[in-house]
Amino acid sequence: MQISQGFLSQIGVFFAAALTLITLSYAFRDNPIFRAILHLFVGVAAGYAAAIAVQDVVLPQLVYPILDELAGTPTLDIIDLAIRVGLTLLLLAKLSPRTARLGSPVTALLTGVGAALAIGGAVQGTLIPQISAAAGIFNVESFQLAYQGGYYGESLQIIFEGSLLLLATVSTLAYFHFGAHSRGKQEPLRNIFVDALAWLGAVFIAVALATLFTGVLQAALGALIERVAFLRDVANLLLGLQ
Amino acid sequence: MSYHSNQDPEKNLPDWLKALRRQQSKETPQPKGAKSEPPKPAAQEPDEEEPNWLREIRERYGRPETKQETPGTEETESPLSDTQPIPASRAVETRPKPSKPKLAEEPPAEEPVIAEPQAETPQRDFPDWLDDLGEPEVGEEKQEEGADTHIPAFPQGSEELTPGELPSWLQAIRPGGAFPQEDTRSGEMLPGVQETAGPLAGLSDVLTAEPEAIQSVKPPIYSARLELTDSQSRHVAAFKKLLDEEGRPKEDLGRRAALPARLLNSFLGAALILAVLLPLLNQSQLVPRPEPDFLPESAEVFNRIDTLPAAAPVLIAFDLQPTLYGETKAAASAVFAHLLDRQARLVFISTQPTGPAVAERLLQEELATLPAIATGDYTNLGYLSGGMAALRSFLSDPRSAALSVTALGMNPWTSSTLESINSVSNFALVVIVSSNADDARIWIEQGAAELPNGLIAVTSAQAAPLLRPYLLSQPQTLQGLVSGVQGAVFYERLRSLDGTGRAMWDSYSYGLGAILLLILLGGLYGRLIHMRPEKETTTVSNRAN
Predict the structure, then answer these.
(1) Residues contacting residue B536 through CB under 8 Å, at least 6 positions apart
(2) Per the CB < 8 Å rule, is B448 touching A56?
(3) Disulfide-capable partner of B62 in A70, B4, B31, B41 (CB 3.0 to 4.6 Å)?
(4) Inter-chain contact B323–A232, Cβ cutoff 8 Å?
(5) Exposure b/e, B259-281, CB count within 10 A at least 16 = b
(6) Distance (Å, rounded) from C-alpha A102 to C-alpha A92?
(7) Is residue A16 in a domain?
(8) Is residue A139 domain-resident?
(9) Do A125 and B507 lie within an 8 Å CB cutoff?
């Protein structure tokens, strides 16, 4: 008996619709079926990632070259293969507490390389460009052009935007300034000017966090719409409307 | 061993002792009513049937009377003989005899009695203080010898004896009347007194078996009521209340609170789903789309793609996770459709294990009708394993990167699309499709040097706020951004098309409106709930004050 591809596709669609309904039932009440589906999702994701890692990484990068080498038809340089096998064995030594120290050099290599790349990338791709942008918040050239051209409103807008960005940057940095003067036996007190800036910085931080929350809410709403639209399509399919 | 007071000890005697008693009673008639008085050992004759142990006791304790029968002999023991050391030959079979309390002329008990070796003329060896006491009278001496001839070890009734002086601290803790003030030893315990009952009746210097020895003094009656202070009473009441509450089944406050909360959750869920579902069912397109100048970063993406030359290779880093595929697919499909419309040659790569599969799904679901997708005129390099290090390697030298597709035996670099690509900068455009801001940030940071023209991003709405600073950075590392349903709708408007974004736009708008309304109502409700406990708390605190 041969099962057609279309039949399997329809089975998959109905199964996906059932899983979607069970997942949406959590909005009304937590239930055991939802928890079971949750475990199913986690298990499927982990299993799929593991299968991909084995199929696309372990087998072609390590196992197949070894088999080719053993078969006398090498596809990799012997030194390259020896390095791969050696590093793999050292990393596998981490599985046992007795031989865990043997895997430390490999772990140190991975950690060191990752940290170096992260720091270098952050400095080059984030810090320097962001600092440069913050240093140029007052667009002097645009302001001069607008002012000389008689566009006083635009020039004032440039000043206002720059001032707002400057105030937000300074006050946010002041919020994370925890230095305080000692007052003998009394509790150390932060400078009143820094304290006022910190309060203002808290406002800007709250706005930033609210923006992040809004983004998460929008993303969730978009996902919900896509799932409801999918259920609508399945219902139309069942009812023969599509 | 104890006896009941109403029990006749004579009845409990063994037969042989009863027979002995009867024989003794025949020999020494006693007055009526003197049943308990034992016969004097001196009047008893050794019986042949008498057991050895009893004979030994009689021989030992019957000696004074034997001596009494022959007064004036030299073998008469000294009155202080019991205080003298017992010879080794007698130490085993005799015990030190307790003495009967003497009269006032006897030496006080505090003074030590020095044991001296036995002399032929004991009276000559008496100490001076004993000689001063004088000789007892003969009649009195005979009377005393009938009972005992020993000097008492515990003289009782002596005028020279003074009660022991207790230290003040001991007197302070001594309960009044609980302990006797003087020697309370019963007369039976004193030396020289004969046992009057039981199998040892008639024997002297034995521990009494009468109930007096085991009689217990009636203990003082203490009050059973505890005397508590006010503070202790309060603590007791608090502790009792605590115990009572512990045993009582707790009121399920969680259930009481869960029911309204569950109803509220159900209401919120139903309202949100209805707000989303109704526009989808109606397929309404009533909500206007954003104005063209509303999202300049998305317009920049449109401009860059719209100016691409034909058949330009475009690298698409597809790091979209399946969880947010539904939300991002609208924006991604809009941008991909534009790219394909511009006849760009798409090259997909992913640093996520699930990325290639999700990309394939998107192409097949949303863009399958386009010729390039239908004919498979695109390249999927697959999964780039190794995280940040692998990405850096790919950006530095794409051809040397360990790609999954090359591991499967294929060489994509020989295709017409990639044969001219030797570095990442050879791509006409680099597009990041990501649902996570961190994944996009890694591409931006690591590609800052290799991508002087920057790149564009198609992301989820939740990643957009974190990526916007890169739009304003100097140099600009992110050239354009399309995010979420809003970005998709805007992009479709720029292209004057109605796609997936437009179909979702009304639901998206109504859903956002419903969320905004629910947040406002929830905040108002929470404020009201918050105000009510404050009043109660204030009332309680006022009462406490």
Answers:
(1) none
(2) no
(3) B41
(4) no
(5) eeeeeebeebbeebbebbbebbe
(6) 9
(7) yes
(8) no
(9) no
Contact state of A232 with B277 under an 8 Å Cβ cutoff: yes
Q: Which residues of B touch A211 (CB under 8 A)?
A: 465
Q: Which CATH architecture has domain B296-497?
A: 3-Layer(aba) Sandwich (3.40)
The residue among A45, A76, A107 that closes a domain is A76
Q: Which residues are B431's β-sheet partners? A: B316, B456
Answer yes or no: is A57 within a domain.
Answer: yes
Chain B residues within an 8 Å CB radius of A232: 277, 280-281
Task: Mutation target for A interface from B325, B327, B395, B489: give the one with most A CBs within 10 A.
Answer: B327
**End of a domain among A32, A47, A76?**
A76
- The CB-side HSE value for A192 (13 A sphere, CA atoms) comes to 0
DSSP state at residue B204 = B
Output the DSSP codes for A130-156: HHHHHHT-S-HHHHHHHHHTT-HHHHH
Which residues in B lie closer than 8 A to residue A216 (C-beta atoms)?
461-462
Structural domain containing residue A224: 163-180+188-242
What is the number of alpha carbons within 13 Å of residue A16 lying toward its C-beta?
A: 16
Helix, strand, or coil (residue B198): coil
CB contact under 8 A, A222 and B461: yes
Looking at the complex, report in whole angstroms how far the Cα of residue A36 sits from the nearest Cα belonging to chain B.
Answer: 17
Does the CB of B272 have a partner CB in chain A at under 8 Å?
yes
Contact B322 A45 (CB under 8 A): yes
B486 and A114: CB-CB below 8 Å? no
Q: Where are the alpha helices (DSSP H) in A54-151?
A: 64-71, 78-92, 104-122, 128-135, 140-148
- φ/ψ of B289, rounded to 5, equals -85, 160
What value, to the nearest 5°, has the Cα angle with vertex B288 and ends B285 and B294?
140
pLDDT in single tens digits along all 545 residues of chain B:
444 444 455 566 677 777 777 777 666 554 444 444 444 444 444 455 667 777 777 777 655 444 444 444 444 444 444 444 444 444 444 444 444 444 444 444 444 444 444 444 444 556 666 665 555 544 444 454 444 455 555 555 545 556 566 777 877 776 554 445 555 555 555 556 666 766 677 777 766 655 555 666 777 777 777 778 888 888 989 998 888 887 777 666 656 666 777 788 888 888 888 999 999 988 888 888 888 888 999 999 999 999 999 889 999 999 998 888 988 999 999 999 999 999 999 999 999 888 999 999 999 988 999 888 888 888 888 889 888 889 999 998 888 887 877 666 678 888 888 888 888 888 999 999 998 899 999 999 998 778 877 799 999 999 999 999 999 888 888 999 999 999 999 999 999 988 889 999 999 999 999 999 988 988 888 888 777 655 555 555 555 44
Structural domains in chain A (count): 2
Contacts of A226 in chain B (CB under 8 A): 326-327, 329-330, 504
Peptide bond into B219 cis (omega under 30): no
| CB-nearest partner of A48 from B272, B354, B477 | B354
Residue A242 lies in a domain: yes
